[in-house]
Amino acid sequence: MRRAEEKLMRVFWMRPAYEKRKSRIRKWFGAMKVLGSYTPLAALILLLICLFSTDAWIHLGANRHSFRPQVTHTNAHTIPLNCTAWNHTRTCSRNYTRTQAPDSSAVAPICPEYFRWIHEDLRYWNVTGISKEIVEKAVATAHFRLIIVDGNIYVEKLRESIQTRALITIWGIVQLSRRYPGKLPDLDLMFDCDDRPVIPAKNFPPGSPPPPPLFRYCSDWRSLDIVFPDWSFWGWAEINIEPWRLVLEEIKKGNERTKWEERVPYAYWKGNPHVCPWRGDLMKCNATPEHDWNARLYVQDWLEESRTSFMASRLGDQCTHRYKIYIEGWGWSVSEKYILACNSLTLLITPRWYDFFIRGMVPQRHYWPIREDDKCRSLKFAVEWGNNHTQMAKGIGEAGSRFIHEELRMEFVYDYMYHLLNEYAKLLKYKPVVPPNGVEVCAESLACSADGIQRKFMEESMEISASDSLPCEMPLPFDPRERKALRNKRSKATKQVEEWESRYWESKNSTL
Predict the structure, then answer these.
(1) Would 267 disulfide with which of 288, 295, 343, 364, CB 3.0-4.6 Å?
(2) pLDDT tens, position by position, 301-348
């Protein structure tokens, strides 16, 4: 199984670049400066015009849901990486563990809807709470144990993870502590960095002892594993995928470079088909002289790509088809967010697993569902439908892309981590202590010994100062009726597509 999971780690084709964007507001201030040099009255007139023209910006505060401007750290207290001190003392600095007050005038936005699933993931322990004995039962598969005491982070290594998954996940948690210094609670948790969930719900029926809480990158509807953002948000050095902030900028450039109407009107997928049977099955949908299923599928040659530093696999160059296929690998696939970020209509083959954000997305609104057991005909119909309903297909693609660019920005990724850890800590029935084999970690202990592209990605993804804004405001849990209504909504949207698809093939067959 480990060998199969190692294959999954190579299922990517991306290498983004970064480009900064200029603010339109600067134009106003530049004009004011010029006019101000001529007459104070002209400057005053322009100022009034500016205020009225930005009325929409002012009123955004009235609708707080999921609105958060791109954050630029303006806190005077920056925390650069100090490897000189680390190499001398081998001791983590306490400079960034103290609490720093955010802007007192700031109003926290409401978190995106998918944050509500935090309550769902933790509800199995609402009544019983979480004891130390229950936590330690998860040691069987965990790769590391994370302990936070008085704002300081400690890790007990339990076993090696695939590539640098554990290291970069820990790095991400350290960055969370730098973003919100002094605001992380005391806690004790186990983290499994493999792909598939391992805590089946059927083993813990009502009335039985609670399941061991185990954090990982994905789960499914039959399991109780607690989902957490995956390591690739801080970069995946082994295949040269940059940190998420930089990736989003590169995808945005790609979206702007090729408009939806100008894209190739077929479904696109490129990856490793050898990691699981269902990917091998997908390759049968490629065009042949006998059949054209409207799919253009390519096998990724990772060995060749690695020789050229993946320069031929830049993510921004992948948004060239109207439709992009998402299919899972050995487990859930990191590629999901990269595919959805393109303005292309995502054709999402029925998934077995979910990550932390996909539960906030809805078929026909953010993506198009594809049958897992009849992929080729389902893909053929999806592309035919999209090419005959171009505005609707384009709209769904743009909605899915907008969700990723707006509600999965790095600021919200950190806020999800923040709220999940805080809600989890409330359930602990004991005071966490540092275990005998626990080692304190900080930015210096992780990055100063790194080199090459790993060091580069760490520096690019490092939080250099505490956030000036508050974490978003956690939404309320689902009540049973809301949970059922959401489940029915997704099911109805998927079944409607399947009915359209069935009628399409019935009409095709009747004309033969």
Answers:
(1) 295
(2) 767 777 776 665 677 788 999 999 999 999 999 999 999 999 999 999
